[in-house]
Protein backbone atom coordinates (compact mmCIF):
# COMPACT_ATOMS: atom_id res chain seq x y z
CA UNK A 1 0.00 0.00 0.00
CA UNK A 2 1.32 3.42 -0.86
CA UNK A 3 1.85 6.37 1.48
CA UNK A 4 -1.36 7.96 0.19
CA UNK A 5 -3.27 4.80 0.99
CA UNK A 6 -2.01 4.79 4.58
CA UNK A 7 -2.83 8.46 4.95
CA UNK A 8 -6.34 7.78 3.65
CA UNK A 9 -6.80 4.87 6.11
CA UNK A 10 -5.47 7.02 8.98
CA UNK A 11 -7.82 9.87 8.04
CA UNK A 12 -10.80 7.51 7.91
CA UNK A 13 -9.91 6.12 11.34
CA UNK A 14 -9.54 9.61 12.83
CA UNK A 15 -12.85 10.75 11.33
CA UNK A 16 -14.53 7.56 12.57
CA UNK A 17 -13.27 8.09 16.13
CA UNK A 18 -14.35 11.75 16.00
CA UNK A 19 -17.80 10.78 14.72
CA UNK A 20 -18.15 8.17 17.46
CA UNK A 21 -17.11 10.70 20.12
CA UNK A 22 -19.53 13.33 18.78
CA UNK A 23 -22.34 10.78 18.63
CA UNK A 24 -21.73 9.66 22.22
CA UNK A 25 -21.53 13.25 23.44
CA UNK A 26 -24.74 14.20 21.63
CA UNK A 27 -26.48 11.15 23.13
CA UNK A 28 -25.28 12.07 26.61
CA UNK A 29 -26.48 15.63 26.12
CA UNK A 30 -29.87 14.38 24.94
CA UNK A 31 -30.17 12.13 28.02
CA UNK A 32 -29.31 15.05 30.28
CA UNK A 33 -31.98 17.21 28.64
CA UNK A 34 -34.53 14.43 29.13
CA UNK A 35 -33.42 14.06 32.74
CA UNK A 36 -33.96 17.80 33.22
CA UNK A 37 -37.46 17.57 31.73
CA UNK A 38 -38.37 14.69 34.06
CA UNK A 39 -36.86 16.49 37.06
CA UNK A 40 -38.77 19.70 36.24
CA UNK A 41 -42.01 17.74 35.98
CA UNK A 42 -41.27 15.99 39.27
CA UNK A 43 -40.46 19.28 40.98
CA UNK A 44 -43.66 20.89 39.69
CA UNK A 45 -45.64 17.89 40.95
CA UNK A 46 -44.05 18.13 44.39
CA UNK A 47 -44.58 21.90 44.51
CA UNK A 48 -48.26 21.42 43.69
CA UNK A 49 -48.48 18.79 46.41
CA UNK A 50 -46.93 21.17 48.95
CA UNK A 51 -49.31 23.94 47.86
CA UNK A 52 -52.33 21.68 48.22
CA UNK A 53 -51.27 20.53 51.71
CA UNK A 54 -50.72 24.16 52.71
CA UNK A 55 -54.19 24.98 51.36
CA UNK A 56 -55.66 22.07 53.36
CA UNK A 57 -54.02 23.41 56.51
CA UNK A 58 -55.30 26.91 55.77
CA UNK A 59 -58.88 25.72 55.24
CA UNK A 60 -58.89 23.15 58.07
CA UNK A 61 -60.05 25.63 60.70
CA UNK A 62 -57.12 24.83 62.97
CA UNK A 63 -55.39 28.18 62.37
CA UNK A 64 -56.44 31.66 63.39
CA UNK A 65 -58.25 33.55 60.59
CA UNK A 66 -55.35 35.90 59.74
CA UNK A 67 -52.83 33.05 59.44
CA UNK A 68 -55.33 30.99 57.45
CA UNK A 69 -55.88 33.81 54.93
CA UNK A 70 -52.14 34.47 54.64
CA UNK A 71 -51.39 30.79 54.08
CA UNK A 72 -54.29 30.24 51.66
CA UNK A 73 -53.29 33.25 49.57
CA UNK A 74 -49.64 32.14 49.39
CA UNK A 75 -50.66 28.56 48.52
CA UNK A 76 -52.99 29.79 45.79
CA UNK A 77 -50.29 32.05 44.30
CA UNK A 78 -47.76 29.19 44.35
CA UNK A 79 -50.15 26.80 42.61
CA UNK A 80 -51.09 29.43 40.03
CA UNK A 81 -47.41 30.18 39.28
CA UNK A 82 -46.78 26.49 38.54
CA UNK A 83 -49.79 26.28 36.22
CA UNK A 84 -48.65 29.13 33.99
CA UNK A 85 -46.87 28.18 30.80
CA UNK A 86 -44.88 31.34 30.26
CA UNK A 87 -41.16 31.45 29.57
CA UNK A 88 -40.41 32.98 32.96
CA UNK A 89 -42.43 30.28 34.74
CA UNK A 90 -39.39 29.11 36.69
CA UNK A 91 -38.71 32.56 38.12
CA UNK A 92 -42.37 33.24 38.90
CA UNK A 93 -42.73 29.83 40.50
CA UNK A 94 -39.55 30.28 42.54
CA UNK A 95 -40.75 33.64 43.88
CA UNK A 96 -44.20 32.28 44.72
CA UNK A 97 -42.72 29.19 46.40
CA UNK A 98 -40.41 31.36 48.49
CA UNK A 99 -43.43 33.40 49.58
CA UNK A 100 -45.25 30.17 50.48
CA UNK A 101 -42.27 29.05 52.57
CA UNK A 102 -42.28 32.35 54.45
CA UNK A 103 -46.07 32.14 54.92
CA UNK A 104 -45.75 28.62 56.32
CA UNK A 105 -43.05 29.83 58.65
CA UNK A 106 -45.23 32.72 59.86
CA UNK A 107 -48.50 30.81 60.11
CA UNK A 108 -47.14 27.67 61.73
CA UNK A 109 -45.50 28.81 64.90
CA UNK A 110 -44.51 26.37 67.61
CA UNK A 111 -47.76 26.74 69.52
CA UNK A 112 -49.87 25.98 66.43
CA UNK A 113 -47.72 22.98 65.58
CA UNK A 114 -48.09 21.56 69.09
CA UNK A 115 -51.87 22.09 68.98
CA UNK A 116 -52.10 20.46 65.54
CA UNK A 117 -50.03 17.47 66.65
CA UNK A 118 -52.48 16.79 69.49
CA UNK A 119 -55.37 16.39 67.01
CA UNK A 120 -55.25 13.28 64.77
CA UNK A 121 -56.35 15.22 61.67
CA UNK A 122 -53.85 17.96 62.45
CA UNK A 123 -51.06 15.44 62.94
CA UNK A 124 -51.83 13.96 59.52
CA UNK A 125 -51.70 17.43 57.93
CA UNK A 126 -48.38 18.23 59.60
CA UNK A 127 -46.95 14.87 58.51
CA UNK A 128 -48.14 15.47 54.94
CA UNK A 129 -46.58 18.94 54.95
CA UNK A 130 -43.24 17.64 56.24
CA UNK A 131 -43.19 14.89 53.62
CA UNK A 132 -44.15 17.28 50.81
CA UNK A 133 -41.53 19.82 51.87
CA UNK A 134 -38.79 17.17 51.96
CA UNK A 135 -39.82 15.89 48.51
CA UNK A 136 -39.64 19.44 47.15
CA UNK A 137 -36.11 19.81 48.49
CA UNK A 138 -35.02 16.50 46.96
CA UNK A 139 -36.68 17.20 43.60
CA UNK A 140 -35.06 20.61 43.37
CA UNK A 141 -31.68 19.13 44.25
CA UNK A 142 -32.03 16.49 41.50
CA UNK A 143 -33.07 19.14 38.99
CA UNK A 144 -30.22 21.48 39.86
CA UNK A 145 -27.70 18.61 39.68
CA UNK A 146 -28.94 17.69 36.20
CA UNK A 147 -28.83 21.34 35.11
CA UNK A 148 -25.29 21.71 36.43
CA UNK A 149 -24.12 18.61 34.54
CA UNK A 150 -25.87 19.75 31.34
CA UNK A 151 -24.45 23.26 31.52
CA UNK A 152 -20.99 21.85 32.14
CA UNK A 153 -21.25 19.59 29.09
CA UNK A 154 -22.76 22.33 26.92
CA UNK A 155 -19.92 24.64 27.94
CA UNK A 156 -17.32 22.46 26.24
CA UNK A 157 -15.88 23.86 23.03
CA UNK A 158 -16.53 20.78 20.93
CA UNK A 159 -20.22 20.83 21.88
CA UNK A 160 -20.49 24.49 20.86
CA UNK A 161 -18.42 24.09 17.67
CA UNK A 162 -20.54 21.22 16.38
CA UNK A 163 -23.86 22.57 17.81
CA UNK A 164 -24.57 19.27 19.52
CA UNK A 165 -27.29 20.84 21.69
CA UNK A 166 -29.22 21.94 18.63
CA UNK A 167 -31.93 24.47 19.45
CA UNK A 168 -32.60 23.20 22.93
CA UNK A 169 -32.93 26.13 25.34
CA UNK A 170 -30.17 26.68 27.86
CA UNK A 171 -31.21 25.06 31.18
CA UNK A 172 -31.39 27.14 34.33
CA UNK A 173 -31.41 25.93 37.92
CA UNK A 174 -34.37 26.67 40.17
CA UNK A 175 -33.36 28.76 43.14
CA UNK A 176 -36.02 29.19 45.79
CA UNK A 177 -36.49 29.03 49.51
CA UNK A 178 -37.87 25.54 50.05
CA UNK A 179 -36.77 25.06 53.63
CA UNK A 180 -38.98 23.55 56.27
CA UNK A 181 -40.64 26.03 58.61
CA UNK A 182 -38.49 26.44 61.72
CA UNK A 183 -41.23 25.09 63.97
CA UNK A 184 -41.41 21.87 61.91
CA UNK A 185 -37.67 21.31 61.79
CA UNK A 186 -37.47 21.27 65.59
CA UNK A 187 -37.91 17.85 67.17
CA UNK A 188 -41.32 17.27 68.67
Walk me through what this model shows.
This protein is an all-alpha fold and 188 residues long. The protein has one domain. It has 7 helices and no strands.
List keywords for this structure.
mainly alpha; 188 residues; single chain; 79% helix
Quick structural summary:
The protein has 188 residues and is mainly α. It has helices at residues 3-59, 65-83, 89-107, 110-118, 120-154, 157-161, 182-185.
Task: Give the arrangement of secondary structure elements.
Elements: H1 3-59, H2 65-83, H3 89-107, H4 110-118, H5 120-154, H6 157-161, H7 182-185
Net shape: rod-shaped
Distance N terminus to C terminus? 82 Å
How many strand segments?
Answer: 0
Tally of structural domains: 1
Sketch the topology as an H/E string, one letter per element: HHHHHHH
Portion of residues in beta strands equals under 5%
Task: Tell me the number of helical segments per DSSP (H or I, 4 or more residues long).
Answer: 7
Largest sheet: none
Mean pLDDT: 90
Alpha-beta classification: mainly alpha
User: What fraction, in percent, of the residue positions are helical?
Assistant: over 70%
Amino acid sequence: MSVWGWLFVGLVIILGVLALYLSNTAGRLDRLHRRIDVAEHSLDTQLLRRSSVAMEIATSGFLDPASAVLLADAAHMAAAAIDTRSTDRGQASAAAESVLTRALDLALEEEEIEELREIPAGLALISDLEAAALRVQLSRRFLNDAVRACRQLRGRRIVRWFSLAGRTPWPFPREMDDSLPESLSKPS
